[in-house]
Amino acid sequence: MNGPLNITPDALAQEAITLQQKLSAGLQTLPEVEDVQYGATAKEEVWRDGKVVLYRFVGEQAPTAQVPLLIAYALVNRPYMVDLQADRSLVKGLLARGEDVYIIDWGYPDRSDRFLMLDDYINRFIDGAVDHLRRSSGLDAINLLGICQGGAFSLCYASLHPEKVKNLITMVTPVDFHTPDNMLSNWTRDMDVDLFVDTLGNVPADLMNSSYLMLKPFRLHLQKYVGLVDILDDKHAIEDFLRMEKWIFDSPDLAGEAFRQFIKQFYQGNGFVNGGIEIDGEAVDLGNVDMPILNIFAEQDHLVPPDASRALQGLAGTRDYTELSFKGGHIGIYVSSRAQREVPSAIHEWLGKRAR
Amino acid sequence: MFKSGFGDTGDFEAMARQYWSAWGDAMRQGGIGGNADPQPAQQWQQAVDWWSRLLPDGRSQANDAVGRFNQQASQWFGQMQQVAAQFAGQDASAREVSQAWRQAMGANGDGNPFTDLFKAMRGQGAHGMDEWLDQVKPYLEGFQQQSQRWQQLPAFGQYREHQERWQALQLAQQDYQQRTDALSALMLKCAQRAFEVFEDKLIGHEEPGRQITSARALFDLWIDSAEQAYAAIALSAEFRKTSGALTNAQMRLRGCIQLEVEHVTALFGMPTRTEIDSAHRKVAELERALRRAAAANARPVAERKGAPASPPAEPVAAPAKSRPRRAPRKPPAITHKAATGKPAAKRRTTARKLAAKPSVVEQKAPARRAAKAESGKATRKSVVKKPAAKNPPAKKISAPARKNSARKTTAAKTAPARSGNNQVVSMKDWVARYAAMNTPDAIGKDKARK
Predict the structure, then answer these.
(1) Between the CA of residue B167 and those of B170, B181, B285, B326, B408, what are the distances in Å?
(2) CB A33 within 8 A of CB A241
(3) Which of B94, B214, B337 sits opposite A321 (nearest CB)?
(4) Choosing from A69, A91, A116, A148, which is the catalytic residue?
(5) DSSP annotation of B89
(6) Is there a catalytic annotation at residue A156?
(7) CA distance to partner chain A, nearest, from residue B328 (Å)
(8) Which end of chain A, N or C, is less surrounded by CB atoms within 10 Å?
(9) Are A102 and A125 in contact (CB under 8 A)?
(10) pTM score, two decimals?
(11) Confidence band (pLDDT; 50, 70, 90) for B316?
(12) Is the separation of the CB atoms in B355 and B295 below 8 Å?
């Protein structure tokens, strides 16, 4: 045979029979799958401002680190993104190494939150949480870990309040929004965001999720679900799959005004690079970010291309900058087994060297 | 082949076995030609439909995933099975396989196999919009045909405002349709390119040892091809313009529809979205004003006394401060820069930021101590103090900051307590407490101090 196919009738029939067996098995396993639980680690509320809650994770042993580590994630996610299940939890990994880990839960904004602005998220919620931790720990400054959009917020915060951030870790954080491989950025450039927010108010989560699916529509909408058939005879694999589904589709709506500002200043204006980001009238300058920075990016990130993150090196004012690349994608960096092995230990070791 | 009504797994297995073995027999007898029966794609889809109906309701997460599988993935995969079956046991060229796939997808002429896929991917909100537009489309189109001249006429008289609104709605609907068609045309281009890439990739598998041996592998190759073609277009300026224009057109149309809905609700004395938004805006601005007032109040008295007087200003918006960007950037550094201490001179005072917030709940029970006490019992031996000694705590909070912390604590103590250790400061109390500070004069002074 010289053509591209070498499919025998027997092989094709066998493939079909295997599929049938998987589907049959699914009829047994799927009903047994309970709605899966998320968030593997116990946590307690320590501070609240409206819908925004600061949680402290409670590990199996008391933390040995003296400086609290605060995690700020993207507004489109939920806190369990870093604590999905026992064997896929960055939080567990950090706690096991003695870090004292906190997370800001942004909650689910409703229409009454439409007029929340970036100022509220940065100078009210993050700053409120940071001040709480500074008070409770008796320290001048704490460690801040920003993820994706939360990383961009953390950079703004560190620029505006550098004295309150001891060490800054950014994970898959966009800094240069105009790299040529940034699909989301390309799509927002000709969008009239004023018209968009004036019409929609808050930005529906479904709309955001469809945009993310549209980045790789064939893989995320077709191939992934054909792959589901392969695991129909494995209850635990199905549960893992469903947890990931929840991870991806459980998204809060986005507060309209904050979305408007974020698109204009970051996606359209590329403000970290070009200047022009103002939070409550105060200019954000990455040159002010002078504390040690650990910047972690994912090599196959389709949402935040590596170059978008790596731009931080040339812009931040710090003289202590460390860059780590992770072999994986935007989601794998939180939930893959490689991430569990590499990310918490990298963060812990880096922080340990800067604990003084 | 399959009929609904089979009650349990046993029925499915029996019927499925019967179907698959019939199909397997047909394969072994020389493959499935274009006109042969059974048609795997249809029957695969029937099997999957039937299978998904057998799943019990109530497992919402599992059902959602199955729904997404059944929505389109199974259909596309079924089509690919059919194409694979067509060439099973035969020697076919890359072009022949690619052409067969085109035909299976209905993309030989102007057919656009991507249209339904992208439609299905839109969020719930967009689905609602599409459904609504589909419903009213016949009326709008009929109306359009009759009113093309009317749309261009100037509006006047008692109902001119209404006429203008309706005209705008008509035009927005037309514009939206045109933009939708433009994106569909671009997606057709994308589909055509995807088939070309697919053929190229098939050619790459013509060498012995690299040949494709299953329908699933063929399907995966198609997915790679489609993604590659799509990525090139989605990153283009043409896509940016076309999709941006469609988004904007949809928003204009939504806006016009929302306006009509507001007119109707107002007619019946119901609150409108605009009115509710207006109330929410006021609440957000009030919260911001309170926060600033609280921040100002938390500053050391000496700092406040030294502040120069300033004219009254607009209560909420702060004047834009434009600090010059740091001009000279440091030279490109190696990936890991040496950790060196930075002068602390740049670090600003923290005092003004350490302020109480409206509606802030402080959990006063020291979580750290609680956790230590709890875990200390079980793991006392494993928690060594050595690391703490190695890594001494960061410098303790500075005097002014501590002063502010104390201020905050005192303020919180005077606030009404909700329950247990939670200290709650209600919005009402904050309004009362800071109303005086929220006067234009006070805010003007605050800005001057800043």
Answers:
(1) 5, 21, 36, 52, 58
(2) no
(3) B337
(4) A148
(5) T
(6) no
(7) 10
(8) C
(9) no
(10) 0.78
(11) very low
(12) yes
Boundaries of domain holding A317: 43-189+270-353
The reply to whether B258 touches chain A by the CB within 8 Å rule is: yes
Give the three-class secondary structure for B268. coil
Q: For chain A, what is the domain count?
A: 1
Q: Which of A7, A33, A47 sits opposite B212 (nearest CB)?
A: A7
Q: How confident is the model at residue B2 (pLDDT cuts 50, 70, 90)?
A: very low
Distance from CA of A258 to the nearest CA of B (A): 12
Please indicate whether, in this complex, the C-beta atoms of B117 and A217 are within 8 angstroms of each other.
Answer: yes
Percent of chain B scoring above 90 in pLDDT: 26
Query: Which residue of A lies nearest to B236 if distances are taken between CA atoms?
Result: A186
Residues of A in contact with B287 (CB under 8 A): 120
Crossing angle of helices A9-32/A235-249, nearest 10°? 70
Chain B residues in contact with A47 (beta carbon < 8 A): 360-363
pLDDT tens column, A133-157:
999 999 999 999 999 999 999 999 9
Nearest to A77 by CA among A118, A107, A45: A107
| CATH code, domain carrying A326 | 3.40.50.1820
Q: Is B105 on the interface with A (CB under 8 A)?
A: no
Q: What are phi and psi of B55, to 5 degrees?
A: -70, 135
A241 neighbors A85 (Cβ within 8 angstroms): no
Q: Which of A27, A35, A66 sits opposite B61 (nearest CB)?
A: A35
How far is B386 from B55, CA to CA, in rounded Å? 57
Q: Which residues pair with A142 in a beta bridge?
A: A165
CB-based contacts of B23, cutoff 8 Å, min separation 6: A13, A16, B38, B40, B43
Task: Give the separation between CA B103 and CA B111, rounded to whole angstroms.
Answer: 10
- Say if residue B365's pLDDT is above 70: no
- Determine which of B66, B72, B75, B330 to mutate to test the interface with A (most A C-beta atoms within 10 Å): B330
Q: Is A328 left (phi over 0), alpha (psi -120 to 50) or beta?
A: left
- pLDDT tens sequence across B150-163: 666 676 676 777 77
